[in-house]
Fold this sequence. Notes:
Elements: E1 3-6, H1 8-16, H2 21-30, E2 35-39, H3 42-50, H4 53-56, H5 61-74, E3 76-78, H6 93-102, E4 106-108, H7 112-115, E5 119-120, E6 123-126, H8 128-135
Parallel strand pairs: 1-2, 1-4, 2-3, 4-6
Antiparallel strand pairs: 5-6
Amino acid sequence: MLKVxxxxxxxxxxxxxxxxxxxxxxxxxxxxxxxxxxxxxxxDEIRNTLSxxxxxxxxxxxxxxxxxxxxEDQGILVEPSSLPTVSRDPNxxxxxxxxxxxxxxxxxxxxxxxxxxGEYHRTKIIPVADFLEILTGGKS
Length: 140
């Protein structure tokens, strides 16, 4: 089964954009089509971002709770032992460390600072649309 690190922007987009590709990715994760690997701070980042006033009015506490529970129940927690210095945005290096430590196949993100890297130690860094194509057998 594919091991995938999913950037926080994808989880947040899944809650905010009905019918979007991020929501489809989360639905397919819920069906067990791939394994999510996540760093220890991801859940707090999702909660903190979605509690900002401009976003909090667009979703319910239950929506947040449900996605956090899904990640906790079906994902695999990885606590990277060290952080590389690779990305233009140092905050993104934790995703790279998580992928490296878990030998993830993909990092799925909408973050240009990660996408520009393209691949890191055999982990491909791709947007949601490309990953959904891979799941349906259209790309590799």
